[in-house]
Amino acid sequence: MASHIKKTKKIILLSFLLFILFLSAAVMTPLLLGPEFLMAEDSMESSKEYDAIIVLSGSEQRLDHGAELFDEGSASHMILTNSTESGTTPEEALEKGIPQNAIFEEPSATSTYENATLSKDIMEEEGFESALVVTSDYHSRRTKMTFDDIYDNQIELDYSFASSFFNPSDGMTEHEKRMTFGEYVKIGVYWFRLLLE
């Protein structure tokens, strides 16, 4: 009986230590890497034409950037993820000069993970082999991590990021601090989720 209690105490202590370690890593990682880490580098090749531009929902700047790239001839099709959300609706894309026959709607995504899985379904159904993924600069690290994992080199991906309010080089506003903390938490959650797949 005493042996069983001793074993239970060891398990509780080990669980507590792991929790403290995880909590310390969660607090230290943003401090060590800083907010700049959230912003990945663009990988778009300016001379290349992609099969599609994938625009993630979340802000009108993303659609503006995607429309500029489309206008420049970067792709002949555009996939709007979560196309029911204001900022990435087909009507807004039409207003920005994207032809109706170039637009593919994905109306169901509720997360970056679903942006990746559901846009991949469209890419495969249409036989597209390359895409340029567009999102906001502060959202770029998590987007790249997620899309690279879900697409798994089966379709060629490059990235181009829309500028946003996020500019840590001029001092952090309260909004930017909250955004940084939230993105780091989501990166941790996504990393763990993708690891378990």
Brief overview, please?
This protein has helices at residues 2-33, 60-71, 90-95, 112-126, 140-151, 174-196; strands at 52-55, 78-81, 103-106, 130-136, 156-162. The mean pLDDT is 88.
Evaluate the radius of gyration: 20 Å
Largest sheet: 5 strands, parallel
How confident is the prediction overall: mean pLDDT?
88
* Lateral arrangement of strands in the main beta sheet: 3-2-1-4-5
Name the poorly predicted regions: none
Looking at this protein, list some descriptive labels.
51% helix; alpha/beta; elongated; 6 helices; 5-stranded parallel β-sheet; single chain; 197 residues
What would your notes on this structure say?
This protein has 197 residues and is α/β, with parallel strands linked by helices. It has a five-stranded parallel sheet, with helices on both faces. The chain contains six helices and five strands.
SSE inventory with pairings:
Elements: H1 2-33, E1 52-55, H2 60-71, E2 78-81, H3 90-95, E3 103-106, H4 112-126, E4 130-136, H5 140-151, E5 156-162, H6 174-196
Parallel strand pairs: 1-2, 1-4, 2-3, 4-5
